[in-house]
Design brief:
27% of the residues lie in helices and 15% in strands. The N and C termini lie far apart (45 Å). The chain is of the alpha+beta class and 171 residues long.
Length: 171
């Protein structure tokens, strides 16, 4: 199977306001409630899985919690685990039914990461030999490994209170 990739696909997503409120329309909430059209492939009491409307590859699926959580920082651990369990089931199905020879799980939190729908979701992107998609272009300077490793070790062993973490700045 030959798969081509249009690197401009991401720019065609309609942007959602990251500061939208619970009263604002959320397309993923509407899909979860059955009020918006989607090609649903699987559903549990807590998650819904549907085809991405602008797929990166053949069989690209989004897995979302039915309850609205804005992003990785907002989603409770239990809901996150349910989404990941559903993503694993979808990955297995993509391998078995579509011949995927690999899988990328992709998630974006925040505008800097190109999150376009501010409802937590995981992309299950099936990969095929020769599809030429580059997920990690390796743009960071590896000379900073020691510094960043130390920062992470400190943060993971002695985390800042949430209000202090938002006040800290990056170098």
């Amino acid at each position: 199977m030959t798969v081509t990739f249009d690197p401009q696909w991401l720019s065609r997503y309609p942007a959602q306001d990251p500061d939208s409120t619970a009263e604002s329309p959320c397309v993923f909430c509407a899909i979860a409630r059955g009020e918006a059209e989607a090609h649903v492939v699987s559903e549990t009491p807590d998650t819904v899985c549907f085809l991405d409307h602008l797929p990166a590859t053949y069989g690209h699926v989004l897995v979302v919690p039915k309850q609205h959580h804005q992003d990785l920082f907002d989603i409770p651990q239990e809901s996150f685990q349910q989404v990941m369990a559903a993503a694993k089931q979808v990955a297995n199905a993509l391998r078995d039914s579509c011949g995927a020879t690999g899988i990328n799980l992709v998630h974006a939190t925040g505008q800097a990461a190109h999150q376009s729908v501010f409802h937590f979701h995981v992309h299950v992107v099936p990969r095929y030999d020769g599809d030429s998609i580059v997920v990690f272009p390796r743009l960071a300077d590896p000379a900073h490994k020691h510094e960043v490793a130390q920062r992470l070790r400190t943060a993971l062993t002695d985390p800042l209170p949430p209000e202090a973490a938002t006040e800290s700045s990056q170098p």
